């Protein structure tokens, strides 16, 4: 993490460009934006973590209904789980997936150490690639991903459960549901309790210094800025969990106009009243021109030196117990409060 104005090593990331379209879609019940063009990745198999002894070994096969009304019979102890994009939840529960979500040959880099050696699968889950991993249980986020007969194709490979567009807006609810499906409810509850304690500890450290301060979270990619709202990823952490104030450019938007990542022009950013700016810069090749412009340099937080640049490998664009805790660590480090 570096202050803006210093030389950085970030590079334009096609991963993040593709992820914007998918993240907005996942958070907004399936937006109609264009889907990114990617190619299938490695389909080598990798076994999931073997279930621990104890209560899990006593589990029995169960039949449940998913968000689409499908009756899904889940194995007693799934051992080869595929839940692309929900690796944060799986890792939190102590489960290693057979494959990990990816776009443009990249993945959720903040989980790299936890998912080392786990092969990639393309974000749109080609059925032939899914079959190649021989899963015994498949978890899908949005109903959008199982349209046009895809659900039936997945269900022929393994029992397939669709979480639903409403549920996946909330990482806590998603974690609890996946924990329930995998007989790991205790682990899910414990993880949420640990997260909430982390929030309380972080708020206590921030209270005196930034209790009345506002912060903007910006993502810069291909010369376009996006500003996160308070419903997902790092926005939910800063605004909802930690209680930091949202900037005027978000609060002034009509509710119906708000998106998870709101595009904002450089000229509009001149009106930004945030005390702090946290910037995920995916534009190493083109950012210099943008960040050296008089308009950018005239923003109050920039003039005060209160801009903090986060690595494109950070968790600021993602949601989950692990992602959120890493955001809090980054925040305290940036403000030198650790």
Automatic annotation (TrEMBL):
Protein name (record): Ferrichrome ABC transporter substrate-binding protein
Its organism's taxonomic lineage begins at: Bacteria, Bacillati, Bacillota, Bacilli, Bacillales
Q: Species name for this entry? A: Paenibacillus abyssi
Q: Name the Pfam families on file.
A: Peripla_BP_2 (PF01497)
Q: Which family does it belong to?
A: Belongs to the bacterial solute-binding protein 8 family.
Q: Which InterPro entries match?
A: ABC_transptr_periplasmic_BD (IPR002491), Bact_iron-sidero_bind (IPR051313)
Indicate yes or no for the key word Signal.
Answer: yes
Signal peptide stretch: 1-27
Q: What subcellular compartments does it reside in?
A: Cell envelope
Q: Name one GO cellular component term.
A: outer membrane-bounded periplasmic space
Q: Where is the Fe/B12 periplasmic-binding domain?
A: 78-338
State the Gene Ontology BP annotations.
Answer: iron coordination entity transport
Q: Where is the composition biased (Polar residues)?
A: 36-48
The question of whether Transport is a record keyword is answered with yes
Q: What is its main location?
A: other
| Spans annotated as Disordered | 36-56
Gene3D superfamilies documented for this protein: Nitrogenase molybdenum iron protein domain
Keyword line: Signal, Transport
């Amino acid at each position: 993490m570096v202050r803006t104005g210093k030389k950085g090593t970030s590079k334009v990331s096609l991963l993040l460009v593709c992820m914007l379209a998918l993240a907005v879609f996942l958070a907004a019940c399936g937006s109609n934006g264009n889907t990114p063009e990617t190619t299938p990745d490695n389909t080598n198999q990798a076994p999931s973590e073997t279930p621990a002894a104890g209560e899990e070994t006593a589990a029995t096969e169960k039949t449940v209904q998913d968000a689409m009304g499908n009756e899904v019979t889940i194995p007693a102890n799934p051992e080869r789980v595929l839940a692309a994009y929900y690796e944060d939840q799986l890792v939190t529960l102590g489960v290693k997936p057979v494959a990990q979500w990816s776009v443009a040959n990249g993945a959720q880099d903040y989980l790299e150490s936890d998912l080392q050696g786990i092969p990639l699968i393309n974000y749109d889950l080609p059925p032939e690639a899914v079959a190649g991993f021989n899963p015994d249980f498949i978890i899908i986020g949005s109903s959008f991903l199982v349209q046009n007969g895809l659900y039936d194709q997945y269900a022929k490979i393994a029992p397939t459960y669709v979480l639903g567009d409403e549920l996946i807006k909330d990482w806590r609810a998603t974690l609890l549901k996946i924990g329930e499906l995998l007989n790991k409810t205790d682990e899910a509850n414990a993880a949420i309790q640990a997260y909430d304690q982390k929030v309380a500890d972080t708020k206590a450290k921030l209270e005196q210094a930034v209790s009345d301060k506002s912060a903007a979270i910006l993502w810069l990619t291909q010369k376009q800025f996006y500003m996160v709202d308070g419903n997902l990823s790092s926005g939910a952490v800063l605004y909802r969990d930690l209680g930091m104030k949202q900037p005027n450019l978000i609060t002034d938007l009509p509710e119906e106009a708000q998106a998870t990542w709101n595009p904002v022009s450089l000229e509009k950013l001149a009106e930004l009243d945030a005390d702090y700016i946290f910037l995920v810069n995916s534009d190493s090749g083109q950012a210099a021109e943008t960040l050296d412009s008089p308009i950018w340099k005239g923003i109050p937080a920039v003039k005060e030196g209160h801009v903090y640049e986060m690595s494109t490998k950070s968790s600021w664009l993602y949601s989950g117990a692990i992602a959120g805790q890493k955001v809090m660590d980054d925040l305290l480090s940036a403000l030198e409060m650790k």
